[in-house]
Amino acid sequence: MSDSTSIHELVAKNFGPVAASYATSPGHANVEALASLVELVGPQASDEVLDIATGAGNVALAFAPLVSRVVAFDLTPSMLQQTLATASSRGLTNVEAVQGLAEDLPFENNSFDIVTVRLAPHHYADIRKGVSEMARVVRPGGKVLIVDTTVPEDDVLDREINEIEILRDNSHVRNYRPSEWRSMVESVGLRVTEEEIVFYTEGFEMDFDTWVERIRTPEANVIELRKRLRAASPELAAAIKLNLYEEKIGFVWPQLILVAVK
Fold this sequence. Notes:
CATH superfamily: Vaccinia Virus protein VP39
Helix content: 40-55%
Strand content: 15-25%
Number of strands: 10
Largest sheet: 7 strands, mixed
Order of helices and strands: HHHEHEHEEHEHHEEHHHEEE
Strand order of the largest sheet: 3-2-1-4-5-10-6
CATH topology: Rossmann fold
Number of domains: 1
Oligomer: single chain
Structural class: alpha/beta
Shape: globular
Distance between the termini: 35 Å
C-alpha cells in the first residue's frame, strides 16, 4: 500500500463515522466565519462553485444560496450524505455531491468560477498535486479560496504543532507555513490577492476534551497530548494561546485564509 493510499484510507476511516459531528461543530459550522469567507470571495449569482474536501458541507452550503451551482466534493461517502441531507433540510436544490480524491479531481479544465477548500489540506497525501488540481479546474479570472490551520515560520513550533496534530489524528499530514502556501499557490500560476492569519476557535477557544473526542483519539494519545500541552514552552503556549485550567485545557490554532486569482 502506497503512502498516498494509506493516508486516503486513514481519512476515510477516521472521518466516515463522525460526519454528523462536523455538521454541528462550533468551529466548522461557525455561521459568522462562513459568512465572512463568502463575503471575502464575493460570489456572483451565475457562479459555479467547487468545494473540495467538503466534509459536512459547511462551506458548500454557505455559498449555495448565492450562486447557480455548487459541487460538494469529498473522499468520504458519509460526509457527502450528510451534506445532501443538510442541503435538503435547508431547501437548497443546487447542490451536487461527487466523491473522489482532492489530488485527482474528475472535472475538466476551467470548470468552475470559484474553488474552495477549508480545514482539509493538512490531510492531503500530495499537497502540491492538490494545489495544482485547484488551479487546473478554476476558470481564468476565477478565485481559489484556501482556509487551513497553519504553523509559524519557526522550525521548533512547526515541529511541535504538527506532532500534536498527528498524535490527535493519524490522518494528519502537515500544517504548512504561510510562506509555503504562497510558494505552492504561485507555482501553479495563481496570484495571491488576500492573505490573513486568524485563529480557529470553537467559541472563545477550543476545548481539549471536545477536540479529541470528536475524532476519537486513542486514550494513550490523549494522555500524551495532555502531558505535552501542560508542559508547553512559553513560545508554544503563546503561539496557540494556551490556557491551562485545573481540569480543562483551552487553546486555538493559527489559521491561514488565502484568496488567489487565476
